[in-house]
Protein backbone atom coordinates (compact mmCIF):
# COMPACT_ATOMS: atom_id res chain seq x y z
CA UNK A 1 0.00 0.00 0.00
CA UNK A 2 0.98 3.63 -0.54
CA UNK A 3 1.56 5.38 2.76
CA UNK A 4 0.77 9.09 2.52
CA UNK A 5 0.48 11.43 5.47
CA UNK A 6 -0.88 14.95 5.04
CA UNK A 7 -0.08 17.68 7.53
CA UNK A 8 0.08 21.44 7.90
CA UNK A 9 -3.61 22.25 8.02
CA UNK A 10 -5.14 24.51 10.59
CA UNK A 11 -7.27 27.56 11.22
CA UNK A 12 -6.34 30.77 9.45
CA UNK A 13 -8.06 34.06 8.75
CA UNK A 14 -9.01 35.07 5.24
CA UNK A 15 -5.98 36.43 3.41
CA UNK A 16 -3.61 34.27 5.40
CA UNK A 17 -1.32 31.46 4.32
CA UNK A 18 -0.67 27.81 5.07
CA UNK A 19 1.76 25.25 3.69
CA UNK A 20 0.56 21.69 3.48
CA UNK A 21 2.91 18.73 3.34
CA UNK A 22 2.36 15.24 1.97
CA UNK A 23 4.94 12.77 3.17
CA UNK A 24 5.33 9.34 1.63
CA UNK A 25 7.28 6.42 2.99
CA UNK A 26 10.51 5.68 1.16
CA UNK A 27 9.17 2.23 0.39
CA UNK A 28 6.11 3.53 -1.44
CA UNK A 29 7.32 6.75 -3.06
CA UNK A 30 7.28 6.22 -6.81
CA UNK A 31 8.12 8.11 -9.99
CA UNK A 32 4.62 9.42 -10.40
CA UNK A 33 2.84 12.72 -10.73
CA UNK A 34 1.25 13.84 -7.48
CA UNK A 35 -1.86 15.84 -6.87
CA UNK A 36 -3.77 17.62 -4.17
CA UNK A 37 -7.53 17.26 -3.78
CA UNK A 38 -9.97 18.78 -1.35
CA UNK A 39 -13.42 17.99 -0.07
CA UNK A 40 -15.75 20.36 1.73
CA UNK A 41 -18.58 19.00 3.90
CA UNK A 42 -21.47 17.79 1.76
CA UNK A 43 -19.58 18.34 -1.48
CA UNK A 44 -17.69 16.17 -3.93
CA UNK A 45 -13.95 15.80 -3.72
CA UNK A 46 -12.32 18.09 -6.27
CA UNK A 47 -8.95 18.37 -7.92
CA UNK A 48 -6.79 21.27 -6.74
CA UNK A 49 -3.28 20.94 -8.17
CA UNK A 50 -0.85 18.46 -9.67
CA UNK A 51 2.87 18.24 -10.29
CA UNK A 52 4.94 16.00 -12.53
CA UNK A 53 7.52 13.69 -10.98
CA UNK A 54 10.38 15.95 -12.04
CA UNK A 55 8.59 19.05 -10.80
CA UNK A 56 8.92 20.72 -14.19
CA UNK A 57 5.18 20.85 -14.85
CA UNK A 58 2.40 22.04 -12.58
CA UNK A 59 -1.35 22.27 -13.01
CA UNK A 60 -4.05 24.07 -11.06
CA UNK A 61 -7.79 24.30 -10.98
CA UNK A 62 -8.97 27.76 -11.97
CA UNK A 63 -10.18 28.75 -8.52
CA UNK A 64 -6.69 28.53 -6.98
CA UNK A 65 -4.51 29.79 -9.83
CA UNK A 66 -2.27 32.59 -8.68
CA UNK A 67 -2.83 31.76 -5.02
CA UNK A 68 -1.61 28.18 -4.56
CA UNK A 69 1.76 26.69 -5.49
CA UNK A 70 2.49 22.97 -5.63
CA UNK A 71 6.05 21.73 -5.31
CA UNK A 72 7.93 18.58 -4.41
CA UNK A 73 11.22 17.46 -2.96
CA UNK A 74 11.81 13.91 -4.09
CA UNK A 75 14.88 13.57 -1.89
CA UNK A 76 12.57 14.06 1.08
CA UNK A 77 9.67 12.04 -0.38
CA UNK A 78 7.45 15.05 0.17
CA UNK A 79 4.97 17.12 -1.84
CA UNK A 80 3.91 20.58 -0.71
CA UNK A 81 1.02 22.93 -1.32
CA UNK A 82 1.71 26.55 -0.48
CA UNK A 83 -1.60 28.34 -0.06
CA UNK A 84 -1.64 32.13 -0.04
CA UNK A 85 -4.49 34.65 0.00
CA UNK A 86 -6.77 32.04 1.48
CA UNK A 87 -10.51 32.48 1.17
CA UNK A 88 -13.35 30.99 3.24
CA UNK A 89 -14.33 28.86 0.23
CA UNK A 90 -10.95 27.11 0.50
CA UNK A 91 -12.17 25.48 3.71
CA UNK A 92 -12.00 21.72 3.22
CA UNK A 93 -10.11 18.58 4.06
CA UNK A 94 -7.08 18.40 1.78
CA UNK A 95 -5.71 15.11 0.48
CA UNK A 96 -2.77 14.12 -1.67
CA UNK A 97 -2.49 11.17 -4.00
CA UNK A 98 -0.62 9.78 -6.97
CA UNK A 99 -2.34 10.94 -10.16
CA UNK A 100 -2.51 10.30 -13.88
CA UNK A 101 -4.21 12.39 -16.51
CA UNK A 102 -6.78 10.76 -18.75
CA UNK A 103 -8.72 13.85 -19.68
CA UNK A 104 -8.99 14.68 -16.01
CA UNK A 105 -6.70 14.12 -13.04
CA UNK A 106 -7.33 10.63 -11.72
CA UNK A 107 -6.10 9.49 -8.30
CA UNK A 108 -4.50 6.07 -8.46
CA UNK A 109 -3.26 5.42 -4.95
CA UNK A 110 -4.83 4.98 -1.57
CA UNK A 111 -6.19 7.96 0.34
CA UNK A 112 -4.67 9.19 3.54
CA UNK A 113 -6.58 10.85 6.36
CA UNK A 114 -6.18 14.33 4.91
CA UNK A 115 -5.56 17.56 6.76
CA UNK A 116 -8.24 20.07 7.71
CA UNK A 117 -7.96 23.63 6.44
CA UNK A 118 -10.38 26.15 7.90
CA UNK A 119 -10.42 29.74 6.69
CA UNK A 120 -12.42 32.16 8.79
CA UNK A 121 -13.88 35.44 7.63
Describe the structure.
The protein has about 120 residues and is mostly beta strands. The chain contains no helices and eleven strands. The strands form two sheets. Strands 2, 4, 5, 6, 9, 10 and 11 form a seven-stranded mixed β-sheet that branches. β5 (about 45-50) and β6 form a beta hairpin.
Distance between the termini: 39 Å
**Mean of the pLDDT scores?**
93
Number of E strands = 11
Elements, N to C (H/E): EEEEEEEEEEE
Shape: globular
Helix content percent band: under 10%
**Rg:** 13 Å
- Beta fraction of the residues? over 45%
Residue runs with pLDDT of under 50 for 5 or more positions: none
Number of helices: 0
Main beta-sheet strand count, sense and barrel state: 7 strands, mixed
Query: How would you classify the helix and strand content by structural class?
Result: mainly beta
